[in-house]
Amino acid sequence: xxxxxxxxxxxxxxxxxxxxxxxxxxxxxxxxxxxxxxxxxxxxxxxxxxxxxxxxxxxxxxxxxxxxxxxxxxxxxxxxxxxxxxxxxxxxxxxxxxxxxxxxxxxxxxxxxxxxxxxxxxxxxxxxxxxxxxxxxxxxxxxxxxxxxxxxxxxxxxxxxxxxxxxxxxxxxxxxxxxxxxxxxxxxxxxxxxxxxxxxxxxxxxxxxxxxxxxxxxxxxxxxxxxxxxxxxxxxxxxxxxxxxxxxxxxxxxxxxxxxxxxxxxxx
Length: 268
Ligand code: HPA
Prior knowledge:
Layout: H1 2-15, E1 22-26, E2 38-44, E3 62-68, E4 71-77, H2 88-100, E5 105-114, E6 124-132, H3 160-172, E7 177-184, H4 193-201, E8 206-208, H5 212-220, E9 224-234, H6 243-267
Parallel strand pairs: 1-4, 1-5, 5-9, 6-7, 7-8
Antiparallel strand pairs: 2-3, 3-4, 5-8, 6-9
Helix pairs in contact: 1-2, 2-5, 3-6
């Protein structure tokens, strides 16, 4: 599978003149950050050898290269989820391709359900840590030492340095943040009320169907990782969940998220 990432990276290098050091993955309804970039070069996933194609509404399927906050970045506008049927090995391809392109830092975002009763729709939560409840670990199988170690350390998945910097940016801009533990849920069904309660009891503050595999794959490859959740629905509401509601609530938070990411990137 590493060969797939090598071929994808070679193809991208041949088709794109930019050399970003920072990558951003945009979650459901959070695609707008890519519109704030300048000097954009858009490459549809379907053109890149071995890249999966996102099948979910609200997820465009593009790699966008360009500048934001004075830095060269690349953005995954639309991500791949385990529930779409991709194997964990397929999910690893874009992240390992980033590493091969020279990316040092990965910023992850997602739309998530709030488990912590203090959270409100539209809140932005900084990921302090995660719990992997996916049925597999993405590193299961023979380890490729060219990528990373057999038993990667997970003490600090989400960089303390970047969390502190992000907090500082939010304070200066009077933007409220939450800080919490994220849990990855395979989906695609939303949680039952009992499952929401269980996840909170386990120690999680927000839940979503992505991010954890990407964070593990990225840490294995030695990338510095940072992540936020936009809270799009709250477990305590006991109202029906829908993908539309998730996208609408994510839309509310997009201007704040774009500002925070732009500032973070400019100070990194
Ligand atoms: N559960 C799982 N994934 C989600 C949720 C949720 O409540 N909201 C947005 N993504």
